[in-house]
Amino acid sequence: MTADAMRDYLEAISRYPLLTTQQEIQLARKIAQYMELRDNTSPTPAEQRLIKAGLKARATMVNCNLRLVVHIAKRYTGRIKSMDMLDLCQEGNIGLQRAAEKFDASRGYKFSTYAYWWIRQSLKRAIDSKERMIKIPIHMIDRTFKALQIETEYMKEHGRKPSKTELAQVMGLTIEQLLALVDCNSVHISLDELITDDGNSLLDLIASPEVDIDFDLDHSKEHVQLALSYLTDIEQDIINKRYNEDLTFTAIAKDHNVCRERIRQKMTSAHRKLGKMMSEYTFPPRAS
Known about the structure:
Helix content: 55-70%
Oligomer: single chain
Shape: globular
């Protein structure tokens, strides 16, 4: 890539204005209508107009946020020689389009907050895919498949996924070796969904190196709140009472008129959901 090519690209995308919150909401509604109709093989004339409007809205949402992709892509320059800045932007743009298609404005968050996840996911997958083809030794690939097999067998026998410590013990590895294996592969098996054996706080879970959240500090609180918003009402209430009000499982159980073990199970489920969303940058479908 020449400097001129990148300069031309930056000049081109700078022509698109930034969107207001109200504009994002309006565009998101049109995109949502398009997403509901796009697989319709026999749309009515009215539906065809909605599809056309949705495609135009998606293009606007994407084009007006291309500078966000550049901002994020800058952090990944030099990671792999075969991908220059323009390549990174193209990969990030794929994630940006996915974000535009899945954005739910009713949750009250800026589009950039939501898109950040998808752009980073697209960039990391592209880089990891190229690095994996070049760098991962055969024995590390074999260990990955072994870990997957052991985890599956453990779930069948115990009805739950193994913790990192348990999986490392069965494989005959140290925790450090297991984490190195996870870091070596873009396929994180399910390890990122697991909480540590001694039970981390929510802050520990979110700040954990395995979760690998290195976005701007001014985005972090919004991203945490976004992830929390995808939990069920009872999971959000338990998280709030446990970490903000510092209540015990017993006290929370009394509030919900259930046993302590049920609250602990709900907390574990919430941890796993948060770990998955914040490590893999994936979110459930739109709420109906």
